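Appendix B. One record, verbatim.
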Amino acid sequence: MTLRYPQANVPGKHWLLADANFADPQSPCTMAEGPLLTVALPGSAMKAGLMNYAFVANLPDEITVPEQGILSRVIHKDENTTITAFGFSAGEELSPHSASTPAILYFLEGEAEVQLGDEMKHAQPGTFIYMPPMLVHGISTKSSVKMLLIQIKR
């Protein structure tokens, strides 16, 4: 996991942290300067009064659409939510299925047909879908698609 954390006392400067065990505040990590995702860290950082948050300045730019297939990347996960970014190439399908927890789909780019129970809905940039637990749903892309999935655990 690669995280961006503000460098102390240097406005606008951030450090990328990789390969750290964030459950252990004493864990060593690799650091390099650059942009990506900002997450306040647990452990000693939390003791310093920082809130646990995630920030992506331009989410569509961070999502890769493969030439063929579906590519997913978890961008945030904690005890309450899992947030996954999806890139679908045109003509891909996610077969109908259900989940035991509520979920939200938000379409950032592209067009798709979405099965929600017995209904089919057209999704385009800006489409928001809330799905209660156990709702059968599936996706069929009409063009390349960038989409966000938010799974709610509590």
